Sequence to fold (480 residues):
Amino acid sequence: MSLQNPPTLQKLARQSLLSSEALAMSSVKELPCGLFPALFKDAFTGRHTNLVKAMVAAWPFPCLPVGALMKTPDLETFHAVLDGVDMRLTRKFHPRGKVQVLDLRNVHHAFWNIWAGTEDGSCSSETFNEKPGLKVLPRYGLRRQVKVVADLCLRPRLDETQACFLKWAQQRKDSLYLCCTKMQIWAMPVNFIKEILTVFHPEHIEELELNTEWNVFKLAQFAPCFGQMRNLRKLLLAPLYKNVFKIANSTGDREDKCVKEFISLFSKFNCLQHLSMSGIHFLTDHMNQVFRCLLTPLVTLSISHYKISQSDLDSFCYCESLFQLKHLEMRGVVLRDLDFMPLRGLLEKVADTLETLDLQGCRMKDSQLSALLPVLRQCSQLTKVNFYNNDFSMLVLKDFLQHTANWSKMNVEQYPAPLECYDELAHVSREMFAHLSQELMDTLRAIRQPESISFATGSCHKCGEHCVYGQGARLCGCWQ
Fold:
């Protein structure tokens, strides 16, 4: 005897319509609003392409968030969605709704979840209030019938779905309002990117990841488009090629001019809050100019795998754009031989706001950690710290942990294995590593109860893995 609940009337109605696609298509204009979402989801996942096309053309809600259904997109079904939009453009199907937004981003999951369990929904636009919301500019709403929103990842080998979408969008750029909010650019020619940005206008991009191998001269060609991204909130630059071999002074002068012009574009970004830079060596000795160009305080600053200069570090303590940071990451930025006080000065400024601090791989020494101790103990909002791959002795680490009683919000703590764990050849002593790590844990637990704490060695000379001591020891492959 089955204990399963019997199917609802709505589910039975959907099953009946899907079993006869001709009946379903002839009924689309008369379908109740409440039946549309669940039936469309069934048709989309079941690859009923003709029904998908007809339902897109007749969609009664302000927005069709089809991107939330495209975990493993089928090209033919996706093409049916685009064909449905074309039907609206050519007026072959009278639209029931006054506004239509085709959202191809992976958002608005709540819309499908709500309607999947609803028997009598309404057509209210409140259903689409899930963040991130859509920002429709009025001047486009009057000029164009359909808004299409997408996130783009532009790389040399586009998947079939994105290649199909880009071709379709380019052919219809004059009749659609095309909007990209998040763009990732990999190793693509500058001219191709500039062409795409004539279709998806730069002013609507809120998140940009620039992962190219362009030199500064290629970057200068991209600069006019970059400067139009006035609504950028998040920016990642990683990595850009540096022309280190200057053939002549004129080439060096040209490069310096390109770098300065690129930096000046930061003064156009009114909304930038999250800035990440990895391997951007052409900005060495120019961080001060970058920070001074910023119009808004940063929430996140991430600088990684970068040869920082003393002048770069000096700028940290007097650039006001950094004084409200919640997240600071300087992973793989070697600080060992630099004057550390500017970083301490910055941490003093952000002691009331800083939530995460990542200084992994900075090759800091005992004196530098001791210099940071007085200010770090005041950072009461910290939830995560990472000091892996630094060179601290047992004495200094133990003293540091004894002064962290104020870290009541801490969730994750990551520390390097003490220097005493290594022999004269920099090989790890397994017994010493386990013993000292446990002693440090006991020291901290006498002060407060940590949520998650671990100690890690440097990379093994043979296998390249780390040994980690946390909730029990995890050894590198050579010790397994």
Remarks:
- Residues 249-264 form the longest helix (16 residues).
